[in-house]
């Protein structure tokens, strides 16, 4: 079968198989802060590929349409192909077989950028279900899931209102609500499944497309250490937050002050510093994290 490289991303390569199908190759590269770390993490690609396949199968068992076709290798996945249309003006409620140019984020706990925005006042506590005047703390469970939408195909992601999201993606109100309902259904099942294996699902993103009949279709990858945030549940019960996701790697670069230097350069418009490789003693820990998380997310042994 002739394969043509379509896109070489930070951690994933996409190939056109020429038969209305694509093949994803999950590499052992790892990225944080929009930087590819010059370190290969053994088995990372395989764990992400197999974890994603697991969740696609779970979604399909729930009656949710996905683009997943099959695993074609340890780190290879075949999926249905859809059009990628960057000109928003061409997307209407009549357009079919296209990638919806949005990312849908659903948060269940106060963590990451949500905490920063709550502290700065960009988001009010009542917008995420807390009483007015409540001061949210890191790790606090949200009274209700907090659903957000951003752009996907632009150079930098922009947060969007519901109206903006519907406008640029050619969605009707009913279709936007269908996306939201689908995300909530998946997260309810995902959260329930992983809790039985000692994990808390904190937040994550999902992507969708329309097929040839304009049926909503779950695409890309989700429920992995890269797309989602997980905490160890027994540690959480003791008031500790043990990161079981790529956040572990982000914290390493915060601890060596790389993020501070990077953010200062970005704010000043200066040349961004190269991200250093992971130390030799950290790389095996990251590899082990990905393997263990695969096993806890899926309930399967890696080998």
CATH architecture: 2-Layer Sandwich
Radius of gyration: 19 Å
Annotated CATH homologous superfamily: ATP-grasp fold, B domain
Structural class: alpha+beta
Report on this model:
There is one protein chain. The chain is of the alpha+beta class and 303 residues long. Helix content is 33%, strand content 25%. It is built from eight helices and 14 strands. It has helices at residues 44-61, 112-120, 162-169, 173-195, 233-237, 247-255, 258-268, 283-298, and strands spanning 4-8, 12-16, 21-26, 30-32, 35-37, 68-73, 76-80, 98-99, 102-109, 141-151, 159-160, 199-210, 216-219, 228-232. Strands 8, 9, 10, 11, 12, 13 and 14 form a seven-stranded antiparallel β-sheet that branches. Strands 1-2-3-7-6 form a five-stranded antiparallel β-sheet, with helices on one face. It has a two-stranded antiparallel sheet with strand order 4-5.
